[in-house]
Amino acid sequence: MEENDSKESKSPSLVMTIAAVAVLTLVAAAGGWLVGELLAPPPAEETAAAVEVPAGATGEEPLPKIATEANGIVELEPITTNLAYPSENWLRIVVALQFKGVPDVSMAEAIHQDIAAYLKTVSLQQIQGPRGFQYLRDDIQERVDLRSEGRVTKVMFRTFVIQ
Predict the structure, then answer these.
(1) pLDDT tens, residue order, the chain (163 aa)
(2) Which among 16, 99, 114, 130 could disulfide-bond with 72, CB atoms 3.0 to 4.6 Å apart, if both were Cys?
(3) Which of these, 105, 110, 103, lies nearest to 154 by C-alpha position?
């Protein structure tokens, strides 16, 4: 008789546990939906007619390049080099220079070579994480300032990939 009493007392406990889990799941789902609705902006309703096609996409006119003599920006050729340590890791970087006034192409080429030579001396440990990347940016900016004698006002990193 004791076995029947223990089975009967376990059954309501199991049913209550399943019911409690189901109720909590529904409350969690409703809460997640509510938070999602409050935080996420509603999707913009666009029609096919409202979407504009850029001028260069149809082949009529080419899109203007960001780096032009008119705005004083020169985009350097991509630099791909291996790191000093570990030498199996490669670094690819694309940099643009903003000049005061008319850009000097020969100076930009000298800066390109200087950056490439510097990157060959950098180890992976030096440039890991956000702080390492900031140190790399500061070092390259300092080298550019010295090489350009103040004619380059800004160094813009367009691409930075480590493999």
Answers:
(1) 555 555 555 567 888 899 999 999 999 999 888 887 777 666 655 444 444 545 544 455 554 556 566 788 888 999 999 999 888 999 999 999 999 888 888 999 999 999 999 999 999 999 999 999 999 999 999 999 999 988 999 999 999 999 8
(2) 99
(3) 103
97 and 138 belong to one structural domain: yes
| CATH at residue 98 | 3.30.479.30
In whole angstroms, what separates CA 30 from the centre of its chain?
Answer: 33
- Residue with token string 């990193």: 157
Do 100 and 156 belong together in one domain?
A: yes
Please state the pTM of the whole predicted model. Answer: 0.58
Domain count within the chain: 2
In whole angstroms, what is the distance from residue 52 CA to residue 162 CA?
A: 36
Residues sharing a CB contact under 8 Å with residue 55, sequence separation 6 or more, in sequence order: 61, 63
Residue 68 inside a domain? The answer is no
